[in-house]
Amino acid sequence: MLTVRPSVLEDVPAQRELWKLAFGDSDSYLDNFYTTYYRPEQVIVLEENGAVRSMTAWFDTAFVVPGQGEYRAAYLYAVATHPQCRGRGLAAQLLAGTDEYFRSLGIPAVTTVPAEPSLHNFFGANGFRECFRILGGTLRREEILPPPSNVLRPALPEEYGQVREQLLADIPHIAYPAGALAYQAGCCALGDGGLFIGETKEGPACLCAERAEEDLVIVKELLGSFGTRRLAFCDLPRIAPARRWEIRGPRSREDSVGVNQNLGKFGMLKWLDPELEKAWDWSTVGYLGLAFD
Asked: Per-residue pLDDT for 139 more than 90?
C-alpha cells in the first residue's frame, strides 16, 4: 500500500539514508538541513508498506510578480526515490500527493530546480513548465583587474533577504523566508563561503558564494547594478578565494542586447490554481536564484 503524507520525526533516519543514497551528500550537509530548517511538515514522504521509498523537502516561499501580486509558493527540494525502487513511478505519485497537500494549505504554486538537465523532462511530464532562468558566466582570477575592492561584508540571513528583495523589486522572482536563507548560509559555511551584502557608490549589492571544488567557487547569485557587480568581482579573491568563479544572476536592463540567448533553463513552475494557470503568460521570465544545490 502506498501513502503520501507529511513526515514525522521518526522518519528522519530513513530520510537521511535516502538523501545520501540519492545525492551522495555528507552527514555534515544533512546536519545543516535538519538543524537549521527541518520541521516534520516540511518534508513529504511516500511510504510503501511502512517503509519510506520516496521523499521531497519543501520551502515555503513567495512568487512575487510586480504589478500582478504575490503568491505563496512551495519550492520542492531534494526530490528522491530509493535506488531499488526507481522505475515504478513512485516519484510521480509523490508529486501528485504533494500537490494535494499544498492545495489543502491554500498554496497555489509549486516550483523546483531539477537536479540535472534530464530531469526537466520528468518534471515537465508532471505538470511543470519552464519559467525561471539564470544568466551564467565564468570569471577567472587573471581576468580580475586591480585595484581590489573592499565593498562586501558578511550578512545575516535577514539582512541578505532585505537587500535581495530591494534589488529584485522590479522582476518576477521567488522570495525566500529567513529560515531558508539561514539554511543557505549553513550550506555556504560548509564550503568556505557565505552571504554578503555591500553598499557602493553604484548602489547596494548582495552575493551568495559556495565552494564547489578547491579552486572553484559558485557565486549562486550576484545582484546589483552593472557598476556594483564590477566592484563585487574585484572583491571575490578576498571574500571567496579561488582561481575560477561561476557566477549566476538575473538579466539586468544594463546588460547587453541579445543576452537573452544566454539565459539557461533553471527552475520550473506549476500552478495548482486553474484560474492562475489559465491567466499566466508563459513567456514571462522569472528569477528563482538560490537553488540550494
From this structure: yes
